[in-house]
Amino acid sequence: MTRNGILAGIAGGAAASLYRYFIEEATRAALSGYSFLGRHWWALFPWLVAAVIVSATVWLLLLREPQAAGSGIPQVKAYLIARMGMRPTPVVATRFLGGVGGALFGLSLGREGPSIHIGAAIAKLLARPLRATSEEQDHLVTSGASAGLAAAFNAPVSGILFGIEGLHRSFSPLVIASASTGALAAGAVSTLVFGPHPILQFGVVGTLGLSRLWMVMPLGVLAGLMGALVNRILLASQSLASLPGPAGILTAMVGALLAGCMLPQVLGGGEPLIGWAEQTATGIGLVVLMLCAKTAFTAISFGSGIPGGIFMPILAIGTLTGTVYALVLQAWGAPRGDQAILAVCGMAGLLAASVRTPLTSILLTAEMSGSLSHLLPVAVVVILAVFTADALRVPPIYDALLDRILASEEL
């Protein structure tokens, strides 16, 4: 099993790394394109033609492979838990083409969920040449899915934990072994491709002593409330995909045009926005505007059904939530040096509240920021956020999406 897990990790990590490269380059092209469009309005007509062509093309691809729509994480869970089938080659092809098409227009989507789905599909392709049994195929898919997250974030430990906590919710030795081999192998691949640097280039993130730990407790409750609200908004936005033909995807493209011309900071997954929020010295009004715009644009982008995830946008929304909280405290006399740590805590707290993966949220924050100095306040916020979201009885986002997929399969 170790050999198979390593092979799945290498193959899945390589595919996810390639996908990550294409998404990053396409997002850069989108930012440049909207900057050009803002100076040359005559380019609006060719943009509209391109938007119609891409929307129609992606819609046709999704008609042939509906499993490639949306995040990808619920689809992998459906395969592992509910024994739903998977067609690996169409999934990978549609994920690449649809995801890059959306990124070229700057849609607010992440690469992490699709990377997990791509890694799982690549691993499924290996099942026949490796002569894997039915049980071994499940472990192969777990290895590939864990590899996808590890490569997307340069975060092998988080890839391991997500395979255990996010996909199986089981700490069985076989699940741990399959997730570990895949994620560690993919981590080596992504490090070779992108280097060993953390994916988020945070500035100096201070620490909070025990005497000031009370500061993060209200933030934990706030992150839980925001996580529940974001989940409700994202689930409600799914009705956009039911519009006739490619109308839902085209609506998201139009939303990207408005965002690109007025608030280009909210385009793409959100890495630059996270860096901006962590150290911005602007007024609270602009941060609240960014928070509302990023949430709304993410809902429109994800609700269209186009291949793309919500992991990174959720992290961006959480960081903005933490920054808003920090700016309120500053208005009451708190030191500005606490803004970075509160932004990081908000990022982890909202992710945990939305997805209900507390261990992954804590460790992912550490791996992405390259620092372990803030684990205690992050853990406090994550625990309070999860308790708050649970008390509101709002289901984890991927579980709710999984239920909808299974319900549609029964119809």
UniProtKB/TrEMBL annotation:
<feature type="transmembrane region" description="Helical">
    <location>
        <begin position="174"/>
        <end position="194"/>
    </location>
</feature>
<feature type="transmembrane region" description="Helical">
    <location>
        <begin position="247"/>
        <end position="267"/>
    </location>
</feature>
<feature type="transmembrane region" description="Helical">
    <location>
        <begin position="214"/>
        <end position="235"/>
    </location>
</feature>
<keyword id="KW-1133">Transmembrane helix</keyword>
<protein>
    <submittedName>
        <fullName>H(+)/Cl(-) exchange transporter ClcA</fullName>
    </submittedName>
</protein>
<keyword id="KW-0813">Transport</keyword>
<keyword id="KW-0868">Chloride</keyword>
<dbReference type="InterPro" id="IPR014743">
    <property type="entry name" value="Cl-channel_core"/>
</dbReference>
<feature type="transmembrane region" description="Helical">
    <location>
        <begin position="340"/>
        <end position="359"/>
    </location>
</feature>
<feature type="transmembrane region" description="Helical">
    <location>
        <begin position="140"/>
        <end position="162"/>
    </location>
</feature>
<dbReference type="Pfam" id="PF00654">
    <property type="entry name" value="Voltage_CLC"/>
</dbReference>
<feature type="transmembrane region" description="Helical">
    <location>
        <begin position="371"/>
        <end position="389"/>
    </location>
</feature>
<dbReference type="InterPro" id="IPR001807">
    <property type="entry name" value="ClC"/>
</dbReference>
<keyword id="KW-0812">Transmembrane</keyword>
<feature type="transmembrane region" description="Helical">
    <location>
        <begin position="6"/>
        <end position="23"/>
    </location>
</feature>
<keyword id="KW-0472">Membrane</keyword>
<feature type="transmembrane region" description="Helical">
    <location>
        <begin position="44"/>
        <end position="62"/>
    </location>
</feature>
<feature type="transmembrane region" description="Helical">
    <location>
        <begin position="305"/>
        <end position="328"/>
    </location>
</feature>
<dbReference type="GO" id="GO:0005886">
    <property type="term" value="C:plasma membrane"/>
</dbReference>
<dbReference type="GO" id="GO:0005247">
    <property type="term" value="F:voltage-gated chloride channel activity"/>
</dbReference>
<keyword id="KW-0406">Ion transport</keyword>
